[in-house]
Amino acid sequence: MRAAIVTGPGAVEIRQCPIPQPASGQVRLRLEGSGVCASNLVPWSGPDWMKFPTEPGALGHEGWGIVDAVGTDVTNVNVGDRVAALSYHCYATHDLAEAEAVVRLPDALSGKAFPAEPLACAVNIFERSDIKPGQTVAIVGIGFLGAMLTQMANRAGARVIAIGRRAWTLDIASQMGAAEAVLMDDHWRIIDGVKSLTSDVFCDRVIECTGKQWPLDLAAELTRERGRLVIAGYHQDGPRQVNMQLWNWRGLDVINAHEREQSRYIEGMKAAVDAVTVGALDPYPLITHTFGLEELGEALDMTRDRPKGFMKAIITYP
């Protein structure tokens, strides 16, 4: 198989490697592609704790493809099934997954890319946000995740205030249904602006999607008394401080909307498949760039730099 191996900070090689064999309870996928996740960027930068070279295909975890071999004791999928999977070496033409960690893709999605893991994250975050019709919802950070949540909140009947660092991403948020678009430039200007937009009461739900300290502080300020602050950002580059005085005084419900149980991921993946199949969720306008495996380094750099027009990259394997 062909597999990407990260050999050092910002350096990747494509090598020919042995095709793995599924053990009992496992399936092997002939991958069609994988999404590129922003969580790859810290190991890609080469922090002290990172070990190089990586295992073949490592870092990739948003894969989909065809089951081409099954181990013993596998009864839920068959060779030839098209599936999305929760597996962890997807920057390669083949990967192994636990049979219980794959989700069949229906014929309605034939030929379509399906990076199920990030879609599951969006679905699970949305569920834990408990958004109702008529609520005002602020989305802080308009990348792929923030744009997906904007679409879902709008379709749930909420009024969405999108807050982002780039004017063009706010245009996308408006296309996804945001009623208001606010540039994330000045802390107090944003607070005053949202206060005015909400008749001085702020927002019923605020979802922070950046993984950074200042937007987390801002998100709390925008949450109304007895509102719900949802932390969806990936805060893995160091500790965070919170304004407990504000959280306490306003009586906020604070949700850390990250899942770690595999079963929750799989349920989210199944729900995402259903939602996309019936048209309740449409991620495809947000998958903006497609690369080959040899271009993985470029895809990771673009995910880091986020040039104008970039929302989400996928890697495909012809």
From TrEMBL:
GO molecular function, one term: zinc ion binding
InterPro entries attached to this UniProt entry: ADH-like_C (IPR013149), ADH-like_N (IPR013154), ADH_Zn_CS (IPR002328), ER (IPR020843), GroES-like_sf (IPR011032), NAD(P)-bd_dom_sf (IPR036291), Zn_alcohol_dh (IPR050129)
Cofactor(s) the record lists: Zn(2+)
Pfam family membership, one: ADH_N
Domain Enoyl reductase (ER), first and last residues per copy: 8-315
Source taxon at top rank: Bacteria
UniProtKB keywords: Metal-binding, Oxidoreductase, Zinc
Family: Belongs to the zinc-containing alcohol dehydrogenase family.
Name of the protein this chain belongs to: Threonine dehydrogenase
Source organism per UniProt: Pelagibacterium luteolum
Organism taxonomic ancestry: Bacteria, Pseudomonadati, Pseudomonadota, Alphaproteobacteria, Hyphomicrobiales
